[in-house]
Every structure is written in structure tokens, then in C-alpha cells.
Amino acid sequence: MQKPPPPVPSHPKAKQKVVFCGWLRKEGGSFKTLRSRWFEIKGDQLYYYKDKSDPRPAGVVPLAGNEVIRHSPDPMDPGNYKFEIVSGKNREGRPVVGSHETFVMIASTMEEMDRWIGAINRIIYKPYGGGMFGGDLCETVKFEARKGGGFVPIVVDVCIEYIKKYGLEEEGLFRLPGNAKHISTLKAQFNRGESPELSDEKDIHTVASLLKLYLRELSEPVIPYDFFEVFLTAAKCYEMYEEDGITSITNHLKQLPPPNFNLLKVLSRFLFEVQLHSAKSKMDIRNLAMVFGPNILRSGSEDPQVMMESTGQVTALVSIFIKRHQLFFPHTDDEKTYTRQNNTSQDPTANLIDLTFGSDSPKLLRSGMQSPSGNFNPLDANELFPTEDSTRNGANVADEGDSKIQELESEVELQARRIKDLQVELEKQRKVQEMLLIRLSDEQRARVAAEERLEKLNTAMDEFCGKFGGFSISQ
Predict the structure, then answer these.
(1) Is this prediction's pTM over 0.85?
(2) Which one, of 397, 420, 423, 385, lies nearest residue 15 by Cα?
């Protein structure tokens, strides 16, 4: 007997923010036919529509408690990159979510499939501190702060500490690529909230590439897009009038969100330490600034010319951060990384991070989240679905919070409608302007054509009068 289709969400649910969207082909129906559908991720749901302009979704794919299975590409069927959303399993191997069938989607390219899997995994593993690659820096830090860390993302802390221990003198550090397969494995483990398995052969370039990859895939660079122009202007000011430049840079740094400022602080200090070993690593301040510049500050524009023109200025700014890190990033009392804080616990070995390859079961990075068996499974039914007793005490707080959230959502929805109305009005004005320009162009062409016809007529009349006598129109 065919399972009934999943319930279509109510209209208010469809008003949620779209975090990722695009076209995919979906298997459906009794004969598993492929149909193109427009997909949107909102909240922890994946909605699909028959057409991009449809107001109501044709169905919904739940993401919480599920996992994504990537199918190997079929060499006999190019252009079909298949992945599947299935129910996750708890420690006993039982499905966490048993109320729906599996969902099979097909992307047109490998890159498109990777983007979709990354976006879906960020939703699935976000409650467990995973999905950090491509995620929001502030959200990652906010989650890790609840587990005792949160000064910088744990992936940054782990990579920096590992490189400090094994790789500061490695020639070509941050310039030579690491092992692509190992990088992909480490990225997937971090995204699932697991601990990294760093090579016991001291694969420094893989760890260095992983750090750069995390920074490059942030939803916004370390210095957000809104600060791009002001920081470049401050860097130019520094080159001409150093004292004024220092004042300008300091003022802009104070306006950064705390997670961005702290990450920039840690990176600047770390890169200064790296350049102290440049005699062997061949990575001086300028080389490091060229490598890390685009990951720290870049324009939101995709225009290649803008990117090329700003490269030198970005390199100069990052060089300033590294050279003057003591001035711009003085030590403060709140400085603590997750690793250092955990090492002060009563049991010195309770929360240490396993940094070696070959462990049978990865240890969890975050305190208090390791299973009794030593395995971390983010899809634990007890964690995903709390019992009534565990949630009763927070019911009143949750109701109050829900009320405030609804008020904020209503305000956001009102503002969104206003913006949409303004966009519609602007589009109307644009069309009117285009119509007027078209009319003006037509009138100009008609005038030129009329003048040409008049000139030809005058010429013909002159020839006629010259031949047969009489007056000339041109006189």
C-alpha cells in the first residue's frame, strides 16, 4: 500500500526565511518518475514546488532526525548526481523518524549536489554543533559557548594548535595543498559534530588547507561585507598618515561583531607567530597576507575587475593586522579557547581532543555530549525528542519566548511586505522609464527619416527644375 504524501505546511509556515533554494529533479509517484521541482530550505524543512512562482508548496521533506546519503555517480548516466534523504538511526540502530519514506533528489552537476548536501547537513547537524562549514560564524560561536567554548570556532582552535605543535617550520605552509580526500573527510566529521582525525604522519598541509577552507566557506568573510570599503580606506590612510590610519582601523575594529573580532584577533596573532619561522617555511608577512587576505576581507561583488583591483589593498591591510597585532588586538580577560578551558576541569583527561588517526570511535569535541559507548551519534532519539518531564519546567519560558518571536516575525513580515511593495513600485517606474526611452528613440528615428526624405525630395525638385525650367525649391 502506498504511503500517503507528507502533509503540506500551512500558509504561515511558508513565510519563513529561505536559507537555500534551487531546482532539482525528484523521484515520485508509483513509477518513480523524475520531475523537476523548485526546492527551498526554510527552518528545518525542505519544501518543494511545481514551479518557482507557486504560492503553496506541493510537499515537504522533514530534515530534523534525518541524514543524507550520497550516491556514487553513474558513468553510464552523466548529468545525474543522486542523493537521498533517509531517516537517521539512534544508538540501537532504530530509525529516529519513521513517519516518512525516503526522498531521492537528482542534481545536474557534482558542484550543485555538494552545495545541496552541505546546506541540508547544516540544518540536520546544527543542533549538535555541526554544519559549521559554510555556516554563520556568530551562530557557531553561540552554540559552542553553551558547551564551555565559544571564543573562536573549535575547528580553528584545533587546526591552529596542531600547526603550532608540528608545522611552523614546514616549507610552503598554507601555500602547498593538502590531501583532498583527507580534507573532505575532516570537513565531513566536523560538520557532523565529531572530532577530527588528524594524521599521525603530521600531514600539516592537510590541516592548513582545512583551516583555509573553513574561513573561505564562511557565509561572510571574517570581516563582513558591509565593512569592506571602510577598511580599505583605512588601510590607504595608514599608508599616507600612519597615526590617522591607526585611529581609523581601531574605530572600525570596535564596530565588528565580537565573534568576528575575536577570530581576526586569533588569526593575526597566529600568523605573526608563523612568520617568525619564515627562514624555513618561506612564508613571510606578505606571503601570509596574500594567502589569507581573500578569506579575511573581500567584496561581496562577483565582478572580477573589482576583485583584482582590491587584491593589493586587502594584502596591505592584512599585513598591517599581522605586524601591529599587539596594538590592535591587546590581551583581554575574556580570551580563552575551548581546549584551554577544558584542560582546567577536575579530570585533566576528560575533555582532551584526540588528534590522531586510527581511533576506532571518534571522540566528541564538546564536553558532556559523548555517548557511553564512546560513539557520537547526533541522531539520538532521546536528544531529538525530549520527554514531557524534561520539558515541563521550561514550558512557561518557552511560551513567553514564542510570543516574543511571533511579534518579531510579524514585524519582519510587515517590513518584508513594505519592501516588496516598494520593489513592485520601483519596477513599475522602471518600466515606464523604459517605455519613454523607447518612444523617444522612435521619435528620433522618425525625425531623421523625415529629414532624409525631405532632402531627397528637394534634390529631386532641383533636378526637375534644372531640366525643365522653373523655380528651385531649395532657393
Answers:
(1) no
(2) 420
